[in-house]
Amino acid sequence: MALTGPPTSAPGQPDPTDRRESRARSVRRGPGPDRLSAGLAIVAVSPLLRLAALRHAVPSGTANRTGCDACGAAIGLPRPWPALGPAGRCGRCGARVGPPAGTVELTVLGAVVLLVLVGPPVGPLSALAWWLGWTIPAVIVDLAVHRLPDRLTLPAATGTWLLLGLAALGDATPGPWLRAVAAGTVLALLFATSTLLLGRRGFGLGDAKLALSVGALLGWYGWPVLLLGMLLAFALSALVSVGLLAARRARWSTHLPFGPFLLLGTTAALLLTT
Ligand SMILES: [Zn+2]
């Protein structure tokens, strides 16, 4: 069915086909997020992402956090409120636990807007949704303790590759999936090579593992999209570095986490090209 065909209903009698087309158009062109799905996502998904970020935002080699740092009260899905709510406060002592108030919820809202704007086909869109679900907490952890945990980046990569593979099966055209796998592999190898050659001055291996999924997502849409995403990530990283240097908030030797720029570069490239 053509999504942009002319309306066929008689005046005053809305045709159901018309309404379906209108919905499809609104999803394709994205005038704004669907409020219901945005609300549901924030209520249902945000506590999970808060929990993932809170658990893993600990220094490398340390056991995952299972409770409040101040009073030790357990935090988990059986009693999500209020620790996993938007305020992120311990239910027993009131200390802040996990990411700052509202940050996860706003990020999830941004993710829903992104999904609406990128729009169908459903196959790659489900891969993008999966990737966001793992990458948002991973990036929050990267900002907090400067590491990208395998427990978040590897499921992000595995699910993204599988969901893109299913999308390719549905379309019966393996080309985009093969390109996605090649792009993910090449990008991860480039990042890993920088670690081997430059040590701490290169990218971390966590960045390389995140690149497995970033490369696949962008590569699905084409090599130029991958190139644009990486250019945007590096440009944003350079801008922020210069800004921090100018504000004397960082020194030349300061090592910024790169995960947030990979997330932003990927998001911006998809918004500009899909
Ligand atoms: Zn507490």
TrEMBL record:
GO cellular component: plasma membrane
Keyword Membrane found: yes
Signal peptide: none
Region of interest (Disordered), residue spans: 1-33
Superkingdom, natural source: Bacteria
InterPro entries: Peptidase_A24A_bac, Prepilin_IV_endopep_pep, Prepilin_peptidase/N-MTase
Keywords: Membrane, Transmembrane, Transmembrane helix
Domain Prepilin type IV endopeptidase peptidase: 133-236
Presence of keyword Transmembrane: yes
Transmembrane segments: 102-122, 152-170, 176-198, 210-236, 256-273
Residue spans of biased composition, Polar residues class: 1-11
GO molecular function, one term: aspartic-type endopeptidase activity
Alphabetical GO biological process terms: signal peptide processing
Pfam families in UniProt: Peptidase_A24 (PF01478)
Family, similarity comment: Belongs to the peptidase A24 family.
PANTHER family recorded: PREPILIN LEADER PEPTIDASE_N-METHYLTRANSFERASE-RELATED (PTHR30487:SF0), TYPE 4 PREPILIN-LIKE PROTEINS LEADER PEPTIDE-PROCESSING ENZYME (PTHR30487)
Name assigned to this protein: Prepilin peptidase
Lineage: Bacteria, Bacillati, Actinomycetota, Actinomycetes, Micromonosporales
